User: Fold these one by one.
Assistant:
Number 1:
Amino acid sequence: MTAAVTARTSRAARLLAVNVAACVLLLIQYLLGMVVNVYVVLPGRHPGAGARGYFTGAVSGLAWVISDGPGWAATHAAFGLALALAALASIALARRQDGRLALALSVLGALAIVGAGFNGASFLDYGHAFSSMIMAGLWALALACYLASVILAARRLGGRSLFRRGYRRTRRA
């Protein structure tokens, strides 16, 4: 193999690994969110609660929940930050790929994660159920983007036959 082909394959493999990690983190985040939703009662008064300034309230609320909030909620928020880092890594790796589709999926997935995070902070600070609903919808969009990215990266690595094989139908006599 030439150096260019090896470098391209290596980048595709790294992008595949980051996108698989993002999918796993998203699934863990979903489960943590369900635990928080069902078993955690957030106090009505905490730093950031009912803040007039959204961004200052979001930062205060996030800092509070990670450092002093209920354990499950703190873990959920920390995984959200890890997801944001994985999203940035996916964008950085996708920029080095040849196709625009990988970059578009990574950017859309990252925007969905950031949007879900902002709605999570909004739910934490203001307690509106629609923020939780938007967060869940954006989670689904992010998962779809990263699953599509996994398929795209696997195809770039030569896994085309994995996605084109079908079951052969046999005729019964």
Number 2:
Amino acid sequence: MESSTTRRLSSLRDKIPDIAKTLSTVSFLSTRSPSSPPLSTTFELNDTLFATANVPHTDEVYLWLGANVMLAYPLEEAKELLAGKLEGAREKEGECEEDLEFLREQITTLEVATARVYNWDVGMRRRERLEGGGGDAKGASKGGKKDEDYDE
């Protein structure tokens, strides 16, 4: 569960900057007037591949939704969609962080409980040995194991 939640959190932390950058771009495009000259820009195609383009005034943008699907949205609708996606991703990021905190607390609790059970078992074996025959402290108990067999 911890590794799954960590992967989900990592994925969200990768997506949030992309969504914010896209929202920023759409917001910028919505501020341009129809009489504005075309915008000359360089944009990223891939991590190391960039292209130059002249972008005329537009009333719509195409958003990549995933699964080989791209849709055209009016600028205002695209801003609303992206703002909602960004807010949702940030909420999920907070939930993942809370879940990780809870899981870590539970793991710690389980480790402490396991250590207590182990220590109780060692104490009981020693008590049995001392009451049962006064054997040496490192001798075998009824279970056939020695205390050092349980040491980590």
Number 3:
Amino acid sequence: MKGFKDTHAETHVGIELQMVLDAFPFYVMLLDADHKILLANKAIRGDLGLVPEQIVGEYCPKVVHGLEEPYPGCPLEEAIKKGHGVECEFFDPDENRWINSAIYPIRRRTQDGKEIFIHFISDISEKKQASVEIEQNYEIQTIINSVLHLSLEDIPLNEILKRVLDLILSIPWLAFDSKGSIFLVEEKPDALVMKYQRELSKTLQMKCARIPFGKCLCGQAALMKEIQFADCIDDRHQILYSGITSHGHYCVPILFDGKTLGVINLYLREGHRQDQKEEKFLKAISNALAGVIIRKQTDHKLKRRETELEIKNRDLEEMNSALNVLLKKRDEDRKELEENVLFNVKKLLMPYIDKLKNSKSNNRQARFVNILESNLNNMISPFAHTLSHKHFSLTPLEIQIADHVKQGKGTKEIAEIFSLSIRTIEFHRQNIRKKLGLKHKKSNLRTHLLSIQ
């Protein structure tokens, strides 16, 4: 092996070392401090299409990379400087892959005193891609959680739309332009209304303030309920204006239970390639935003309903107040009427009753005068009014008899007033007692009647 002492033992060790290196599926080399290749495994030889004699002893950057100086990112210079192993990862744009490059000193030297290093070069593109996908998926989930959390905050829906669009456009690995907008469906069911925009021209804001379903890319997304992609201005771009620059779009419908709630409109640079991963992310964001919109709209409806109920409650309270005023006024009018009737009866009728009673008349006429007086007293008696309201089961005659009992008149006197027999009056008195709940004989009817207000 070139660079080592040419003895049988060293040759045997070199052969065994070559076999060990050939067992690795990735690149493995032995190098000296001047980048001279001392040994290369089968993976390198196979990829380069060279035999060992064409590799061993050659300048590594020249053989592997076709360079006259070290390849940018080669860790050998750093390992020599630091005196220990070095590892690094870098992206090779020519091969479109990620490389892990590691080099370690093996504590041996060549015949001319150069330190020997073992160099490992492996393709880690799949591992790197998996790591990137994990990181991106985590970032996507974080953003979706942030969107869902917005529904719990006490902020207007327009502010939520602003934050969602800003979140989407802030993701570094998505090649979106910095412009976009979000539309919602409002009162008119087949039209989109722009609710938030970012960096759109005044002209475009006016032209796209309201877009019917089916018009332009956003209207197509709303109508078809599918993502509309464009990598340039094509025939579907129906809204044009002077000075428009070529661009692409992702127009993502916001759907809930098969119904279009709105559209997320994102701008792309011309020539952007359609990407399933991007569309999957945008659908996830759209679904999360749909839930937020539904919740906010439901909250808004509930608050509006609460406001309506509060207004109706206030109206009812005002109506009740008005009714109370009317009822009070009615009571006042009733009292005034009663007072007028009482005044007229006492001042205009009762004096004549007294004159009739004092005049000479036969018994029959006297009874009629007494009956007339009794009926007039019943008319003006507050007790009769109270008793008729509190005890609806009393007949009019019973109310009149009860009033005379209250005045202290006896059964015989009451019988004469009504031209009824004493037995009939006693019968009515017993009925009055039963209806008033006076079951005990010791209970005095007049005392009980006097207690009724």
